[in-house]
Q: What sequence folds into this?
């Protein structure tokens, strides 16, 4: 096999939109550098800014003439230290009381979460401030000034300050996963029109069902849901979450806080392996090119980190502050693009599956195998739901998968799928017309040479989505 053909990249790039890249000329350069999807982080900015970002991305599609996915990332239950928290350093071994509220008692820490004392598990939970330090183990329950409190001991030295973010690990939560802010933000989605919504701090498959019900209630049932894996509880029921979700995000920042940084690499491999096995979109995120906030070149360690995620099988890699706030947003996307292309040289097709497939999935696996045996230039699959393109991508073939759909929303959602090149293309009245016209379009779009083999997989009845059952081997003219 020849491996990845020139001009194609199968791993997708998701870039966060923020002040550093929100202007249309910079956004256009991001797309030219390789951006496939835009993340709108609902934890920062205003609804007006989010809507402006989404409109700019939609306008950019017409300029670049290909779909761009928009992902709206819900904030979830963030907690913070009280605004009057004194600046101080906690040293290893220091013991301190932790209480709920926005007013800090003397020699204590106040957390703006009413239930903090009730949900913590003494001997199991830890209170982690900022990005990892200080770290306090919860020793037990007590009272302070007549109110419920926790006794904690510092196990990693660090500073506390007003309004610093905090994480309580291994909590005994059973309530709703969506906060009042999240529900208010969901009301904006009809105008924002994202293709995907990321749910933060997922603990169980029921959290995904809760969000899906909220989307259905707002007539947004077609919006795909990405579960962010950043809680230790989620790792215990990972298969159930993957099954319920449309995609998975390896949110390494909070996952590292929960598990400890030494556990993150193995957790990442586990999450990606299980999600890819299930045929689900997988996004790897957090500090992938952190140094490029301030410098135009990545470090060797960052390049290795990105390459390893790609070799693990991730569908997409995500940039956060690097593009939203950094000094080199375009360079960061370009660096990600280059690293991905090099890493993909050694990616091999996925092993054949011998069970648990529908008839359509079995046909598409056969199409991938045919394409590999003929060293095809590309695959073509007409699709209305995107299912056939995703099923074909599950085999991780070397050649790009051109997904042709008359549904623009489907095309946009496919923009982050591994190896898929989506295009809006109207259905034809007959199978033969669909074959001829789609091959002519793709030959021009992909720069195929006369005689290049192309594998086409599509439904026997164009009018019946989800029934992929024919495979055709054709050659470019």
A:
């Amino acid at each position: 096999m020849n491996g990845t053909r020139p001009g194609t990249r199968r791993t997708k790039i998701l870039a966060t939109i923020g002040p550093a890249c929100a202007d249309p000329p910079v956004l256009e350069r991001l797309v030219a550098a390789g951006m496939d999807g835009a993340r709108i982080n609902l934890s920062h900015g205003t609804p007006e800014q989010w809507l402006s970002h989404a409109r700019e991305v939609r306008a950019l599609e017409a300029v670049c003439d290909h779909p761009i996915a928009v992902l709206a990332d819900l904030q979830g239950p963030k907690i913070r230290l009280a605004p009057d928290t004194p600046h101080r350093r906690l040293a290893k071994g220091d013991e301190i009381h932790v209480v709920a509220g926005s007013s800090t008692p003397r020699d204590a820490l106040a957390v703006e979460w009413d239930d903090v004392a009730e949900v913590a598990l003494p001997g199991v939970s830890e209170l982690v401030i900022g990005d990892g330090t200080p770290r306090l183990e919860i020793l037990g329950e007590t009272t302070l000034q007549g109110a419920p409190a926790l006794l904690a001991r510092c196990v990693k030295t660090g500073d506390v300050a007003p309004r610093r973010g905090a994480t309580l690990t291994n909590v005994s939560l059973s309530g709703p996963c969506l906060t009042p802010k999240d529900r208010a933000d969901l009301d904006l989605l009809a105008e924002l029109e994202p293709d995907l919504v990321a749910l933060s701090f997922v603990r169980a498959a029921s959290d995904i069902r809760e969000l899906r019900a909220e989307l259905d209630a707002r007539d947004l049932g077609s919006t795909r849901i990405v579960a962010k894996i950043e809680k230790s509880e989620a790792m215990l029921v990972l298969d159930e979450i993957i099954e319920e979700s449309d995609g998975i995000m390896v949110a390494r920042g909070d996952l590292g806080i929960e598990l400890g940084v030494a556990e993150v690499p193995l957790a990442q491999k586990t999450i990606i392996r299980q999600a890819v096995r299930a045929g689900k979109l997988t996004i790897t995120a957090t500090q992938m090119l952190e140094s490029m906030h301030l410098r135009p070149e990545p470090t060797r360690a960052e390049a290795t980190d990105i390459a390893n995620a790609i070799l693990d099988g991730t569908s997409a890699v995500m940039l956060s502050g690097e593009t939203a706030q950094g000094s080199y947003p375009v360079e960061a996307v370009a660096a990600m693009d280059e690293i991905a292309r090099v890493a993909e040289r050694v990616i091999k097709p996925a092993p054949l599956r011998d069970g648990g497939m529908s008839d359509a999935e079995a046909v598409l696996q056969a199409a991938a195998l045919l394409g590999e045996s003929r060293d095809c230039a590309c695959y073509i699959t007409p699709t209305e739901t995107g299912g056939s393109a995703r099923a074909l991508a599950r085999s991780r073939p070397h050649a790009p998968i051109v997904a042709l759909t008359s549904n623009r929303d489907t095309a946009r959602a496919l923009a982050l799928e591994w190896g898929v090149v989506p295009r809006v293309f109207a259905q034809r009245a007959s199978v033969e017309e669909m074959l001829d016209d789609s091959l002519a379009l793709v030959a021009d779009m992909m720069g195929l040479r006369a005689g290049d083999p192309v594998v086409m997989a599509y439904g026997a009845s164009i009018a019946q989505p989800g029934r992929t059952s024919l495979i055709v081997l054709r050659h470019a003219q």
In short: The domain at 12-76+177-344 is CATH 3.20.20.60 (TIM Barrel). Residues 1-6 have pLDDT under 50 and may be disordered. The first helix runs from residue 24 to 33.
